[in-house]
């Protein structure tokens, strides 16, 4: 006598494990997103070079030349390293927040792991990150940077931390945005502010001079996971470009890195649990 197959509640999947099992669907969604974004575009993926280059030029002229922030050694490499992190994070979180709503037709018509949508947004941002990272590394080499094992590890950890933060927040915000569409507008506002809340356009020493080096505010600022991600990328590409840059690396970066990864892991768990709990109601709400 055959044992009957266990009943499966439709609309409630197995979380991120379903994404791994359905890697082919993930690749299809990523390709669809890229085709839709660059349909009838002459430059295509070339826009992933143009947009950050223009953003870099505006900040470099406005802050580096006009406001004299270029007192930071190799300011162009410093600035672009921070922009790489913030651009990738902002794109991943912003697109992930809208991902379920944008794919509402698929959600209503067929069942597939809902986590595929925010995860595909992360992979699309990774596609755009590649050219930016290449430009950063070439610029760092021109400035005098030579790779070292600790620096390469810091660069990899910085990018990994950015991805974990973006995925955790993306899962959480994508689920909530299905029920409250104001979330995506709020996210856009917060992402605009975040570029000023991390040492992208200025050095951490400016914050230390403002609030005091023994201040709890400075500790909270340096414990911000995005600040840690930016500083790790700076350590990987900018710190050894010139002899004086390494001295500007914030103290205690290793401890803050461990703390940041703990926060990112907790955020990833919370985001996954929230998404999984709410995903069964997505079709009805959409």
Largest sheet entry: none
Assembly context of the chains: single chain
Number of strands: 0
Count up the helices: 13
| Series of secondary-structure elements, N-terminal to C-terminal | HHHHHHHHHHHHH
In helices, the fraction of residues equals over 70%
The percentage of residues in β strands lies in under 5%
The end-to-end distance, rounded to whole angstroms, is 43 Å
Mean pLDDT: 83
Structural class estimated from helices and strands: mainly alpha
Basic shape: globular
Task: Give me the Rg, rounded.
Answer: 21 Å
Number of domains: 1
Low-confidence stretches: none
Can you give a write-up of this model?
It is a multi-pass membrane protein. It holds the Pfam family ABC2_membrane. Belongs to the ABC-2 integral membrane protein family. It is a single chain. With 286 residues, the chain is mainly α. The protein has one domain. 72% of the residues lie in helices and 0% in strands. It has 13 helices and no strands. The longest helix has 31 residues, at 149-179. The protein starts with 15 loop residues before the first helix and ends with a helix. The model has no long low-confidence stretch (mean pLDDT 83).
């Amino acid at each position: 006598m055959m044992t009957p197959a266990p009943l499966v509640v439709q609309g409630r999947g197995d979380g991120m494990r379903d994404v791994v099992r359905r890697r082919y669907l993930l690749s299809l969604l990523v390709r669809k997103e890229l085709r839709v974004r660059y349909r009838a575009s002459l430059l295509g993926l070339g826009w992933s070079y143009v947009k950050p280059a223009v953003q870099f030029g505006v900040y470099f002229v406005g802050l580096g030349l006009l406001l004299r922030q270029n007192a930071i050694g190799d300011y162009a490499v410093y600035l672009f390293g921070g922009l790489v992190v913030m651009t990738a994070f902002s794109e991943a979180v912003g697109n992930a927040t809208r991902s379920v709503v944008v794919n509402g037709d698929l959600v209503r018509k067929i069942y597939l792991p809902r986590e595929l949508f925010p995860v595909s947004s992360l992979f699309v941002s990774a596609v755009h990150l590649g050219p930016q990272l290449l430009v950063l590394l070439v610029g760092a080499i021109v400035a005098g940077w030579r790779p070292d094992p600790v620096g390469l590890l810091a660069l990899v950890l910085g990018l990994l931390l950015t991805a974990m933060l973006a995925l955790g927040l993306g899962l959480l915000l994508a689920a909530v945005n299905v029920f409250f569409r104001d979330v995506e507008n709020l996210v856009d506002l917060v992402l605009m502010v975040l570029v000023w809340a991390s040492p992208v356009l200025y050095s951490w020493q400016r914050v230390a001079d403002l609030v005091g080096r023994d201040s709890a505010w400075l500790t909270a600022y340096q414990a911000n996971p995005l600040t840690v991600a930016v500083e790790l990328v700076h350590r990987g590409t900018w710190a050894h470009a010139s002899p004086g840059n390494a001295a500007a690396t914030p103290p205690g970066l290793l401890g803050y890195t461990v703390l940041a990864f703990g926060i990112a892991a907790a955020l990833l768990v919370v985001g996954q649990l929230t998404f999984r709990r709410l995903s069964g109601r997505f079709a009805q709400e959409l």
